[in-house]
């Protein structure tokens, strides 16, 4: 297994098509965000590469879909075992490619990628279909589910292998074959996983990975007439484009998109737990998780106490070299993204907001090697109007804004006052209040007195501009299969 973290020369990736590594004629530079230098070259694939991958996937489909669920599950479990056995190499590579800390990759990204395969291998074996009798008509109705065919899977850069496997695992477990396109900014662990595919006994053509940019490789995949289904995770703007692009083919779409997630904190909350968790929910993975908290609404009577304690806790959230186990955050994905995130802090200041800690307030002490990396400290802002772009738009960095509310109704109205609806956290010891809020908050996921606790059996996804459809357990099975209703008359 090559370990990109230890290679000094530039790593050159190849596409994985029909079970083989296939070189590409042109490449894109990929940066190590913690040092700001190119260290890898990613295939700049386009329509011809996608065409070859779709052809391989089509050829593999009859054989793979004819296997029993147990036979497919065996292959997925083997893949999970192989990922588990190589956690360290994958964690080092994910950190170097994305900028996140090795600790985060080792404890979250890679174990969860392995678990995605293990979970869907098992989940697949437990679905049942519907049956209904109509004796007066002499009929029995029942449903069957069949794999859709070649699935197009497109994933983003923030949790590279984690989100890619979240799609590949249910798609192939259900009997589809896939053509996947990871983000061009974070392709290395997907490429490493291709070697494991061979070892796990994934038949050639069942999983094809085509590397490249969205407008070239992604567009060719979305626009391919023989790809009837697209599962996309990424930004709302790209999803809007994909929806239009796939409309002429009436494709099945699952869209998991951005968020502007509120934390709503009532005066009766357990503040110790709430502050510890809300610091994590705001800043984990450099704030580059679609589920991260970016608007914190605190009940007026505890606002000052909360802000003081929250800022003190945020100041302890350490940012620096991703390999240092003492750091909570590493580097942001790119120079452009760092500048975008910083521009929101500048905008907040220009609108009269107060920056309590982080950007422009606290100095980062970085090792010399990381001096040109894309680092930004955990930043807390207050005093911004709800209509500000800072409070309305997804920042996707280590920045969170604190504001107050004075009634349950106001908390609901502020929480829902954005175009997104992905996740929310609600903090209160009053069970009735928690239930009322969960009903009224417009979000696909409402965590009360916790954050990011997931059961993969349950639906995951957002409403409003945060997505269309749900994935997870039964929902993934439904998305990656077509249901047919069969009626038998005797
Ligand atoms: P992005 O939309 O720029 O890119 C996502 C993927 O789409 C990449 O692989 C990219 O190459 C591809 N792409 C871009 N243009 C395309 C096109 N025209 N046709 C086909 N594919 C195209 O998003 P990003 O910047 O990589 O990721 C960050 C975004 O993802 C944030 O908005 C974040 O909230 C969101 N996200 C959502 C979830 C979720 O589960 N809801 C999870 C993680 C990230």
TrEMBL record:
It catalyses: 2-aminomuconate 6-semialdehyde + NAD(+) + H2O = (2Z,4E)-2-aminomuconate + NADH + 2 H(+). It is an enzyme of class 1 (oxidoreductase). The active site is at 256. InterPro entries: Ald_DH/histidinol_DH, Ald_DH_C, Ald_DH_CS_CYS, Ald_DH_CS_GLU, Ald_DH_N, Aldehyde_DH_dom. GO terms for cellular component: cytoplasm. Its main location: cytoplasm. Residues 26-486 form the Aldehyde dehydrogenase domain. It is found in: Cytoplasm. One of its GO terms (molecular function) is retinal dehydrogenase (NAD+) activity. It comes from the Eukaryota. Pfam families: Aldedh. SUPFAM superfamilies: ALDH-like (SSF53720). Its EC number is 1.2.1.32. One of its GO terms (biological process) is retinoic acid metabolic process. Pathway: Amino-acid degradation; L-kynurenine degradation. Keywords: Cytoplasm, NAD, Oxidoreductase. Catalyzes the NAD-dependent oxidation of 2-aminomuconic semialdehyde of the kynurenine metabolic pathway in L-tryptophan degradation. Belongs to the aldehyde dehydrogenase family. This is 2-aminomuconic semialdehyde dehydrogenase. It comes from Notothenia coriiceps. The lineage of its organism: Eukaryota, Metazoa, Chordata, Craniata, Vertebrata. The gene is aldh8a1.
């Amino acid at each position: 297994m090559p370990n990109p973290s230890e290679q000094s020369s530039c790593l050159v990736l190849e596409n994985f098509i029909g079970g083989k590594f296939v070189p590409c004629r042109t490449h894109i530079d990929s940066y190590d965000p913690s040092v700001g230098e190119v260290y890898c070259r990613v295939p700049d694939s386009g329509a011809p590469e996608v065409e070859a991958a779709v052809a391989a996937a089509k050829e593999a489909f009859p054989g793979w879909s004819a296997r029993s669920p147990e036979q497919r599950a065996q292959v997925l479990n083997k893949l999970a075992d192989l990922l588990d056995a190589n956690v360290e190499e994958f964690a080092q590579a994910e950190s170097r490619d994305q900028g996140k800390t090795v600790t985060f990759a080792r404890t979250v990204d890679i174990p969860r990628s392995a678990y995605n395969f293990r979970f869907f291998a098992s989940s697949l074996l437990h679905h049942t279909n519907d049956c209904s009798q109509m004796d007066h008509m002499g009929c029995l109705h029942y449903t069957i589910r069949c794999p859709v065919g070649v699935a197009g899977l497109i994933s983003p850069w923030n949790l590279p292998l984690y989100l890619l496997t979240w799609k590949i695992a249910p798609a192939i477990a259900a009997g589809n074959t896939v053509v996947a396109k990871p983000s061009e900014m974070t392709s290395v662990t997907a490429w490493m996983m291709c070697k494991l595919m061979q070892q796990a006994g994934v038949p050639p053509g069942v999983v094809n990975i085509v590397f490249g940019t969205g407008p070239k490789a992604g567009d060719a995949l979305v626009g391919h007439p023989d790809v009837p289904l697209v599962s996309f995770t990424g930004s709302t703007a790209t999803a809007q484009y994909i929806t239009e692009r796939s409309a002429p083919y009436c494709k099945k779409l699952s869209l998991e998109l951005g968020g502007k997630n509120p934390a709503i904190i009532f005066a009766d909350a357990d503040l110790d737990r709430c502050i510890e968790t809300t610091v994590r929910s705001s800043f984990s993975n450099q704030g580059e998780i679609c589920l991260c908290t970016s608007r914190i609404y605190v009940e007026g009577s505890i606002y000052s106490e909360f802000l003081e304690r929250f800022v003190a806790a945020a100041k302890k959230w350490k940012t620096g070299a991703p390999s240092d186990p003492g750091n909570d955050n590493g580097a942001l994905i790119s120079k452009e993204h760092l500048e975008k995130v910083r521009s929101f802090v500048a905008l907040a200041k220009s609108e009269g907001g107060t920056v309590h800690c982080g950007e422009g307030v606290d100095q980062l002490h970085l090792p010399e090697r990381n001096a040109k990396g894309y680092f930004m400290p955990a930043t807390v802002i207050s005093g911004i109007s709800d209509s500000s772009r800072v409070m309305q738009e997804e920042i996707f960095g280590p920045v969170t804004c604190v504001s107050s509310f004075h009634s349950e109704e106001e908390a609901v109205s502020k929480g829902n006052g954005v175009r997104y609806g992905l996740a929310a956290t609600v903090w209160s010891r009053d069970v009735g209040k928690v239930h009322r809020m969960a009903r009224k908050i417009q979000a696909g996921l409402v965590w009360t007195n916790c954050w990011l606790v997931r059961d993969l059996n349950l639906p995951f996804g957002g409403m409003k501009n945060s997505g269309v459809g749900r994935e997870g357990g039964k929902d993934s099975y439904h998305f990656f299969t077509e249901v047919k209703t069969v009626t038998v008359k005797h």
